[in-house]
Design goal:
76% of the residues lie in helices and 0% in strands. By secondary structure, the protein is mostly helical. The longest helix is centred in the last third of the chain and has 16 residues, at 65-80.
Length: 106
């Protein structure tokens, strides 16, 4: 939930407002402008969707709570920050992984 909230903040208050974009392109050197440029670069490489997909595939093969959490975090970020296709497929794989039995304990 926190990761999706961060992604919503970044999308609607940092990336989309034209005032912020113009200020950053004019040479403003703040942490917001740096975060904006890093997130845009990561979006260009589809990093959020790719990480979500990788975590979901690992979760599908070898279920574990930390991998489920990582998959949910990156899926939420990917869905909000324009990596819709890969993040949606990752979300579907995470749902499928819940139908699998967990590891057997001795």
């Amino acid at each position: 939930m926190g990761a999706t909230g961060w992604a919503l903040y970044v999308r609607y208050l940092v990336i989309e407002p034209s005032v912020v974009g113009l200020a950053c392109e004019a040479g403003l050197q703040t942490m917001t402008c740096r975060m904006r440029s890093v997130v845009i670069a990561l979006f260009g490489w589809s990093v959020f969707g790719g990480l979500a997909l990788a975590a979901a595939l690992i979760q599908l093969v070898r279920p574990s709570v930390p991998m489920l959490a990582a998959g949910l975090v990156f899926s939420g970020i990917g869905l909000v920050l324009y990596n819709n296709l890969a993040a949606a497929v990752a979300t579907m794989l995470l749902i499928l992984s819940l139908a699998r039995p967990g590891r057997a304990t001795p």
